[in-house]
Amino acid sequence: MKIGVIGAGAIANFLFEKINEQQQENLRINSVFVRNKEKYKHLESKYAVNLYTELDEFLDSDIDIVVEAANITTVECLLPTILKKKDAIVISIGAFADSTLLAEVSNLISEYKNNVYLSSGAIGGLDLLQNAHALGTVDKVTLTTRKPAKTLIEKEITSERVVFEGKAVDAIKLFPRNMNVSIVLSLAGLGIDFTNVRLIADPHIDKNIHQIEIVGDFGEATFTITNNPLPENPRTSYLAAMSILGTLKRINYNFKIG
Ligand SMILES: NC(=O)C1=CN([C@@H]2O[C@H](COP(=O)(O)OP(=O)(O)OC[C@H]3O[C@@H](n4cnc5c(N)ncnc54)[C@H](OP(=O)(O)O)[C@@H]3O)[C@@H](O)[C@H]2O)C=CC1
Ligand SMILES: O=C([O-])CC(=O)C(=O)O
């Protein structure tokens, strides 16, 4: 599968290294869409990719699928155009908190028959949540996220602080670079207005910890994911980058699990 990546930050560099440098069977990144070619010029020789700043040229290049590794605004601006030509994997899931975009994307999927894959990112358990809610009988979903304090607030603190408590719909507005996980969890389950979120700045940790609690007719489930950060961007978990690689591998394989 030939891949085009949008963005060239921490997640994108993980993918360049693991896919192009270390090589993965049947996967190859050919094209990278950036805002500033000069800034990222070194990538062309390092990973044998072509850089693009024009979206149509990027989409018409030698790629089968687009991987977004940029931010929410980029998804809002580019995804509708992408879906007219290519499948897409999205990691900045927060974009789908906008119901207008969600409806537009649903219409484009029907019309152009391209697929959108929402990576599970820095969490897991989305298969269980979707199964448990297949009859609409999950009652409660709560996400408690703890991140190193310095990645959430500028001021130094000595004890933990709850920086957000409420619904996913508001969490993503206030923390668009930290709460994408709350939106994928919402889409798999009760929706953005009914998924409970707590975000805690913790000065005593150096990992991104997501705790998920699900209650419904099936019973109860709790998961804790203790994520190592990506060195290039400690706000982003290593698993978020891995989840894109996992999605790419699963698309390629006809023996589907879960
Ligand atoms: N679902 C999940 O669990 C998670 C999701 N995320 C999402 O992934 C995104 C990427 O994370 P990460 O790699 O750590 O972030 P980085 O800040 O390291 O990299 C972001 C990259 O996107 C580029 N970019 C921004 N806007 C555009 C654009 N319009 N067109 C092309 N490139 C663009 C930036 O380029 P430039 O130099 O031009 O600014 C930069 O190279 C985050 O913003 C977040 O939305 C992150 C962590 C977890
Ligand atoms: O990487 C993480 O732990 C989660 C994150 O930033 C997000 O969901 O936006």
From TrEMBL:
Source taxonomy: Bacteria, Bacillati, Bacillota, Bacilli, Bacillales
Enzyme Commission numbers on file: 1.4.1.21
Domain of life (superkingdom): Bacteria
Catalytic site: H210
Signal sequence bounds: none
Function in brief: Specifically catalyzes the NAD or NADP-dependent dehydrogenation of L-aspartate to iminoaspartate.
UniProt domain Aspartate dehydrogenase: residue ranges: 158-244
Sequence similarity: Belongs to the L-aspartate dehydrogenase family.
Note: The iminoaspartate product is unstable in aqueous solution and can decompose to oxaloacetate and ammonia.
Name of the protein: L-aspartate dehydrogenase
Binding site for NAD(+): A122, N180
Chain coiled-coil ranges: none
Gene: nadX
Organism: Pallidibacillus pasinlerensis
Enzyme class: oxidoreductase
Gene Ontology terms for molecular function: aspartate dehydrogenase [NAD(P)+] activity
Catalysed reactions listed for this entry: L-aspartate + NAD(+) + H2O = oxaloacetate + NH4(+) + NADH + H(+); L-aspartate + NADP(+) + H2O = oxaloacetate + NH4(+) + NADPH + H(+)
Ranges where the Aspartate/homoserine dehydrogenase NAD-binding domain occurs: 7-117
